[in-house]
Design brief:
Elements lengths: L3 E2 L1 E4 L17 H14 L3 E4 L13 H14 L3 E4 L9 H11 L3 E5 L3 E2 L17 H6 L4 E2 L3 H12 L4 E6 L2 H12 L7 E7 L9 H15 L3 E7 L4 H10 L3 E4 L6 E3 L2 E2 L3 H14 L3 E2 L2 H8 L10
Parallel strand pairs: 1-14, 2-3, 2-11, 3-4, 4-5, 5-8, 8-9, 9-10, 10-11
Antiparallel strand pairs: 6-7, 12-13
The structure holds zinc ion.
């Protein structure tokens, strides 16, 4: 039997802004359509943020999530993963609210504090439709706060709902932080570890960086984890290919990259999922269905959520 690879699609996020691409999902209807399209193309998991429908700014209120969560559940059996990262400008209490309210099968969890530099994108994008975009991107003082206390707060809040986690690790130290929580008994195997490459403030996107994160995770967690990768921007597919060949799972989507090729904007999230799928199948592997992903990650099931 061929190995199954989980594709996660992060459809909108909080990093890119509306003026960067007309295809970035903003409204609840666009986010629902993007998630369902990604699932139909082969994503087993959709990772979701919400935005203000008028100006596209990140919105972490449960009311912003409710409309698209309902539609996605009606029209797809994909695993729903709700962000607890939100945007670096939000408090930890705001960030956990949607996951705490809707009790999804999976929530993301950022495993360490870090600098967060979006200003590099100002070299490519100059004209903005909304007044919040330029200052949001230009800020060189963003500290993405994820202290041990913050992480423990999210773990305790969401674990009561049997929500499991996509542990987002942007650097080697984040793996050690996760190891601490494993040793404390606050998280349990199988851990779903999303190693993140190429974001300004985190580890780079060189193949050596990918190998280093994998080697470290192998040493710390052995067979107690499932590995997934996310490469930012143009690194998306090269890193997906590398990880798929080495036994990993992959994340794509417009949260992480707006592109479908050099200088070519992706027209949909599904387009990126199809590109990842082509790589996976080209390697002689196959794409995991939502139920296969549930089995691989020990999830509670799509009928045990509060939406
Ligand atoms: Zn996210």
């Amino acid at each position: 039997m061929t190995r199954k690879v989980i594709i996660t699609c992060a459809v909108t996020g909080a990093i890119h802004t509306p003026s960067m691409s007309p295809h970035l999902p903003i409204t609840a209807e666009q986010i629902a359509d993007a998630a369902i399209g990604a699932a139909e193309a082969g994503a087993a998991i959709v990772h979701l943020h919400a935005r203000d429908p008028v100006d596209g700014r990140p919105d972490q209120s449960p009311e912003a999530f409710a409309p698209f969560l309902r539609v996605i559940k009606q029209r797809s059996d994909c695993v729903v993963n709700i962000t607890t990262g939100g945007a670096p400008t939000m408090t930890i209490e705001q960030r956990v609210k949607p996951a705490a309210s809707f009790a999804p099968e999976v929530a993301s969890l950022n495993m360490g504090s870090m600098n967060f530099g979006l200003f590099g994108m100002l070299n490519r994008f100059k004209d903005f439709q909304h007044d919040w975009e330029q200052p949001y991107l230009a800020n060189k003082d963003i500290l993405f706060r994820n202290t041990f206390g913050d992480i423990e707060y999210i773990l305790r809040t969401c674990s009561e709902n049997n929500t499991r986690f996509e542990f987002e690790c942007y650097d080697t130290s984040h793996l050690y932080n996760l190891k601490y929580f494993l040793d404390q008994g606050l998280v349990r195997a199988p851990l779903f570890i999303q190693t993140v490459f190429g974001l300004q403030g985190g580890i780079g996107a060189h193949p050596e960086d990918v190998l280093h994160m994998k080697r470290t995770a192998d040493r710390l967690f052995g067979d107690q984890y499932r590995w997934s990768v996310l490469g930012a921007g143009r690194n998306q597919l090269p890193i997906a290919a590398m990880a798929a060949a080495m036994g990993g799972n992959v994340r794509v989507g417009m949260e992480d990259s707006l592109w479908a090729g050099p200088g070519r904007l992706a027209r949909s999230n599904a387009e990126q999922v199809r590109a990842a799928r082509q790589i996976i199948e080209g390697l002689g592997l196959s794409v995991a269905t939502p139920d296969e992903a549930r089995e691989m990650l020990s999830l509670k099931g799509g009928d045990r959520v509060n939406f």
